[in-house]
Amino acid sequence: MLADSTGYRFTTTIASLLKNIKGILPEGKSLPDDSWEARHRGILTLLWLHVIGVVCFGLFMGEELGHSLLEGSILVPMAIAAGWLKGHRKFRSAMTSLGLITASALFIHLSGGYIEAHFHFFVMLAVIVLYQDWFPFLVAIGYVFFHHGVAGVIDPTAVYNHPDAFAHPWKWATIHGAFILAASVAGLISWRVNESLRTTIELILNSTGEGIIGIDLHGKITFMNPAAAEMTGYEVKELMGHRLSGLFYQAEGTTARPFESKAWIKALTEKDCVQSAIEGTFWHKDRTTFAAEYICTPIRKAGIVVGAVVVFKNVTERLQAQAALQKAKEELEIRVKERTADLEEANMRLRFELTERQRAEADLAKRATELEESRSFLNSIIESLPTMLFTKETQDFRYTHFNRAAEEITGRSAAEIIGKNDYDLFSATEAGFFTDKDREALAEGALVDIPEQTIHTPHKGVRFLHTRKIPIMGADGKPKYLLGISEDITERKLAEAALIDSEARYRAIATTMPGTIYQFTSRNGVWTVDYVAPQVFEFFGIDPADILQDLNNFTCHIHPDDIGNFVESVAEAVENLSCWNFEGRLINPTTGELVWWQGLSTPISTTKGEAIFNGILLNITERKQAEAALRQSEQRFRQVVSSISDHIYVTKLTTTGEATNLYVSPHIAPLTGYPIDKFIKDWNFWPSTLIHPDDKAAATIQAKQLAKGESSELEYRIIRADGNIVWVRDSGRVERERNGQELIIYGLVSDITGRKQEEMILEMARDQALESSRLKTELLAKVSHELRTPLNAILGFAELLKLQVDAPDAGKQRRMTNEIIDSAHYLTDIVNELLDQAQLEAGRLVLNTHCFTPFDLIDGALARMNVLARTKGLSLISDIDNAVPPTLCGDMDRLQQILVNLISNAIKFTTTGSVQVRLYCPDTHHWALQVSDTGSGIPSEAHSYIFEPFRQVDGSMTRKQPGTGLGLSIVKQLTTMMDGEIILESAIGRGSTFTIILPMQPTEEIVI
Description:
It contains 34 helices and 28 strands.
């Protein structure tokens, strides 16, 4: 039993929870067609703006134009579908919602997953809720779930932009889902509140028994309730947009049309309160008429009358009863007068003729009977009145009469009421109020009007009555009865309350609009401010109270450069009564910022000669900034297109295969030598005239691929107008038009003649280099292998001979030995140069970087070259600049090799003079080795190849000097490996200067 009880409670709790949740969720009631269409147009416009926004955002984020257009085109089919099928509301709203959420996803992807782009989802959900339809809302939520929960987990780098999201996509998908859920709950609550307000308004309008019709200032019907339709016999939709005067019966000979005349509009705009009830005659659909009592109340928006509400009820029966009552009263008065005359005559006769007494009494009895009949007739009329009527005796205020209308209003029968006072029937509070008013009427002896009093009834609850009380005097001149007449005004009170609520809602709308509503009036050139919304301070930093006091408190902040145009535009609008639309700048007095603003108004003229401006002021700063950014972007785009030397074309291809050039860039003229007009007029001019005959087959294949919708790229030759042949690369990308049938080809034609020529030259050079490299590598390998072994033997034996100093003729042996050693060293240098060259070309040479002092570098090289210089009688000078750091980093051995090669060459080609070695710093980031000589110099034509392997300067001097021609080549290649630069300055007869500029390296041991 306990388990059953627990299960029952659990089931009950779940059912109650589901019921509460269902009560919170919107019911999804459909909006009226006009409201839905208005919202859909606005949301669809927003979607089309996103098509442009995605393209602009892609360009802003650095994407190519083609890619940005492709991203923006994703939204186009959805926007077209959303505006296509009229009447299919769910499909159209779903397409719009899908497009807006897709735009959010595109913004995220184009921005690289920035978190700010994710906020776009929340805004779009708030927009989609405006449909008040579950289907598009669930489509949007499902898309977001797929995008974050599925795509965000499978490929987090496409949705997020930080490492934690890449590592834990479920975590961030859950975080984003929580915020989406919160935004959805807020949207659903707003949706539910909107539904409740609409339901309440419809319930009030549908439940009231009186007819309610809304009209504009032209007298056209804008809304009406079912009671009004029932009274007139029309359907609501039959009268919407028609003039109310068409329902109003107009007597012959009258010209003023009610609800349309200028006098009626003037009276409506000048009254601030509800007008008194007016009686009139209305047409029924079957062309019969009925009497009605109506009240016309102005509808105001921001203090401006924009229409009126007409509340009416059928009073035909009441008027008939009143007419019958008046007729009976007149007949009674006539009869009373007649009877009074008869009585006087009878009295006279009694004085003179006693015999006539019996006849007079009989006649009086007869007249009394007729009087009773008249009283009965009057009572029947009173019972038929639609207004509550009652009488009380003046002692204890007990009821003596209670008509049928009183029974219907109070819910009590006359039998229950008559003989009782108010304390027997109502609460003490109500009874006390009724009795006080009774005493007041008796004390004043005149009519007491009670505009409003409440009464609790058992069948209709609280009712509101308009009561009039007046004492009825007796024959003695004292009050004998108290007559009361009450009218049930409950329905009118409810309608008034509904109108008050409606006006409050309109005021709320005015204060929450994205602009500042205002009303200005020009009277004989003097401007006054009738109303300005509070948002003027938020938008422009100006206190609305200051503007209401003096309009100059607003105009004084207009930018000086715009004030002239502002005054001119206002004067023109006042003179012509034309729509006023002005854009200008304004200085915010609170922040000092420059604000762009726009003023919109439609001035109207009154009979007094006044011009009234009703309009709105908008802050358009963001729009102006966006327009400026767009103009800059467009200018940059045009500059980019104009700076491209390639030819751009756009071709339209129909389903029948007909091709038309939509755009041809001006670069086609210098490319082909033909004027641009030939290509614009005839698309076939290019393939038929320009394409080389040998390439037309390949071009035809490319054209067929493009016609199938496939992008293609082809390199072929064209024949210019001057007969020259030019190589081009033709790249075409295909997109379908919106109709899905015709194709648009976006093409780019680039001149690649230079590249083709370079490819041919490079191909020939490559073949030659490969052959030369192969032969050279073989030579180097053979020389290295064949010479190293005997050279090592020569060096070994020569060293032994040198040690035998005690042998006969030691001087001669020593000279021979020196010659052997020198020759061996020379051959070793040659072999080393060949090996270095082979290693450099093979890429196997490694630099060993370490720290050294500039003195050690110079000293080591000079120690090896001093003997050679002294032998030729040359001075070998060295200089180290003070700016050179005390420690340098690099491969010291290779640097000394560079110095030795340069110094050796300088000594070799210098006969007299000197050779100078210098170390200095050309700037803070580099240091330099410089070797200068006073030799014969190098011809200028040899500068271009002096650093090539195996190359030497032609001439007699070259033939006298030995060498392989590898020294300078090795110097050049080693310098390049050290990220350095070598500079040659030389001329015939002026000597030569070689400068090696090297980058500074950190003073630490590094091996490269």
